[in-house]
Specification:
Its cofactor is pyridoxal 5'-phosphate. By secondary structure, this protein is of the alpha+beta class. Helices cover 29% and strands 29% of the residues. Strands 7, 8, 9, 10, 11, 12, 13, 14 and 15 form a nine-stranded mixed beta sheet that branches. The protein has a six-stranded antiparallel beta sheet with strand order 2-1-6-5-3-4. It binds 4'-deoxy-4'-aminopyridoxal-5'-phosphate.
Length: 285
């Protein structure tokens, strides 16, 4: 695999980052994951816009403009012959050397920029989307700025491990009795054909797929309510699903051991997945 590090394309075994990098020492960095279908980027501009916002929230200087970012994404797709898969992008605050709690001067310390591809043939035909996934609920013990897409993914990783240990696919985080989101996705329920998902705030990541799906739902005259919901409500819902750049729209068929609806992927989730894939492929660049 050919990866990108700070302006250079090179084989992954030759790619290196300083041991003093604040991404490594302090999880001081942000990331994005953009899907590739048929060799084209899905929702690129949404991811680029969120990246700009994440950097601004952390007082980091964007290392490159949108067009250059797009060019690197495309170059990686071409060099690695990616048809279906993902582009991972990470920007950390770098470090001139030695460990310190204070940020280095951005004028003299450039960010570290790393990008690489993950090939996933048949990404849009994941069997999980046909069967639906099962989730458990766990307490949300992440920090309070979940709207910034930082590389601090230890707690979400622990959540995913807890889910696998419980024999299911993923975990939904719960805070003050309400679902915030999944370990790496936004969470939804459907009741009487109304789509319900938590409103945007610093409690959740502002999913790029979420924004697109809610727009398509509105265009298809589906009813949407942005509010938080409980696990009991999810258990009594007609359907549930998640969204993310790599899972698109994936039905959830079980929550904490209880079947959601008839325990099969629901009509609304299935339809939204079709619309999302169709429209995003059309708009892909
Ligand atoms: N919430 C969290 C916590 C996530 O990690 C992700 C995926 N990165 C999402 C939601 C979904 O965001 P997106 O649709 O932009 O992939």
């Amino acid at each position: 695999r050919i990866v990108y590090v700070n302006g250079t394309y090179l084989p992954e075994a030759e790619a290196t980052v300083s041991v003093f990098d604040r991404g490594f020492l302090m999880a001081d960095g942000v990331y994005e994951v953009t899907s590739v279908l048929d060799g084209k980027l899905i929702d690129f501009d949404g991811h680029a816009a969120r990246l700009t916002r994440s950097l601004a929230e952390l007082d980091m200087t964007p290392p490159m403009a949108r067009d250059e970012l797009l060019a690197v994404h495309r170059e990686l797709v071409a060099r690695n012959a990616i048809t279906d898969g993902m582009i991972y992008l990470q920007i950390t605050r770098g470090n001139p050397g030695d460990r310190s709690f204070t940020f280095p001067d951005p004028e003299t310390t450039p960010c570290t920029v790393v990008m690489f591809t993950q090939s996933k043939p048949g990404l849009a035909d994941d069997p999980a989307a046909k069967a639906g996934i099962r989730v458990i609920s766990i307490p949300d013990q992440r920090w309070g700025r979940r709207d910034i897409k930082t590389v601090q993914l230890l707690y979400p990783s622990m959540g995913k491990m807890a889910a696998l240990a419980a024999g299911v696919d993923d975990a939904w985080f719960v805070e003050d009795g309400k679902v915030t989101e999944g370990t790496s996705n936004n969470a939804y329920i459907v009741k009487n054909r109304k789509i319900i998902t938590r409103e945007l705030s610093s409690d959740i990541l502002h999913g790029i797929t979420r924004a697109a799906v809610l727009r398509f739902a509105a265009e298809a005259q589906m009813e949407v309510e942005e509010r938080s919901f409980t696990i009991d409500e999810a258990k009594g819902a007609d359907e549930a699903f998640i969204t993310s750049a790599s899972a698109f729209v994936t039905p959830v068929v079980e929550v904490d051991g209880a079947a959601v609806g008839d325990g099969k992927p629901g009509q609304v989730a299935t339809r939204l997945r079709e619309i999302y894939l169709e429209e995003s492929r059309k708009a892909a660049i």
